[in-house]
Structures are given as structure tokens and as C-alpha cells.
Amino acid sequence: MKNLIFSILGYFFFANMVAQDIVGAWETTFSNEQGATIKQVAIFTKNFVSLAAFEETTGKFMATQGGSYWVEGDDLVQTFEFASQNLDRIGITKKTPFQIVDGQLRINDHTWTQIDDGTPGDLAGAWLISGRKQDGEIVKRDTSGPRKTMKILSGTRFQWIAYNTETKQFMGTGGGTYTTVNGKYTENIGFFSRDDSRVGASLQFDYELKDGDWHHYGLSSKGDPIYEVWSQRNP
Fold first, then answer.
1. Long-range contacts for 133-136 (Cβ within 8 Å, ≥24 apart)?
2. Reduced to 3 states, what is the DSSP secondary structure of residue 56?
3. Is 96's pLDDT higher than 80?
4. What is the domain count for the chain?
5. Hey, what's the torsion of the CAs at 200, 201, 204, 208, to 10 degrees?
6. 16 and 94 share a domain?
7. Which end of the chain is more exposed for a tag (fewer CB within 10 A), N or C?
8. Smallest Cα–Cα separation from 60: which of 139, 141, 1, 126?
9. Model confidence pLDDT, tens digit, residues 12-37
């Protein structure tokens, strides 16, 4: 199972493309040895990518990996920042090719279908948590260190990942679909590595953009009040 997931997630085949061609969310499925359908979702922003594999019906988390990337000629060049099942990959830069044919992404013998092209959604991109409100004051967090909490969004899909690039520790992830309507940001949880029981839940938050930062406030999945600040991630 582990090798099968990463034979699909880990190797890409690109041809005559630019980064904009793959921005957005893509999905593919396969059946594991137990007959369960495994869904894989890849989210590409302009400079960052995350991939997640989980059981389609239950949302049971299987694996995730990702990091920064760029297109160089006919190749995708990717530097891995996190890889939940393959720690040796973290910090490695890998150059590989792929193809988009008739609007579909073909990787080895697998075909990925595009879910969205990065629209709609004014929050599409890669973000790092950069602050929290405590006792009425926003306490800033350094985003330059090795410990990161990143949230990556296409037009309709999101994934957050907590990890440490120095120790290679993977702390958790979750994701699914989202909407932004009338100042309300709503997450619909499709997988959650820490607690499968949260799959299927919807969480709604108020949000606004201030000086380029994403301010996000409401109640957490445990019902606790939260106020988070996220900053757009640059390459």
C-alpha cells in the first residue's frame, strides 16, 4: 500500500508546460488490496503543492506530501518539505516530467481529473499561520523557522499541514472542500489525520483580508474560540 500510494503521488510527468497550466486541484482514485477506494487530491498553487491520499467513503487518512515546486522546461522541479510516510524524501529536490492531455493530467498509468483551476475563491494560495489573538492582542508568530503550519487552497479545496522541515516531523493534516460567501469561510472536512470522527463536519468562520493577511475567527472543531492570522507564503 505504502509503495503504491507513493508510486502515484511521488512521480510526475510533465511536457511543454508552464506552472499556470497545473494551478488548481486535481483528483484520482484507485482501489487498495482490501477493495477500498482511495482518493488522492493534489492542490497546486503558483509555487507550492500538497498531495493527500484518503479513503473515499470514510475519509480515513492514508498519506500526504508536498512542498515547493517550479516548472523548468518540460520538467517539474519539486523540493519536498513534508512526507508523512517517506521521511527520507524531505529536503530532496526532484526533477520529473508529466503530461496534460485533453484537459487531464496523466501520471504513469493514472489519469487525474481537474476539480478546479484555482477559481473561484479570494483565498486561493499557500498561507502560513503568522499570529493568534490572545487576551485581545494579536501575538505574532515567526514564519521563517522550520516548524510550520501551512494551509494551501485551490478554488474549492483546502488542506492544512503541520510539520517541521528540520526534524522531518509530521504533526498532522486535514482537508476537504471550502467556500467563501459574504465574509463567511466554511470548511467541509473530508479527511483529518488526528480524528476520523471529524470527517463530514462543517465549520464556519468569519474572515477578512487586512493588508494582505487572512484574519480568520470563530469556533474550532472542539468548540473553542479562535482568532488566527495567516500570511501569504512567498517562494
1. 133/217, 133/227, 133/228, 133/229
2. coil
3. no
4. 2
5. -60
6. yes
7. C
8. 1
9. 433 344 556 889 999 999 998 889 99
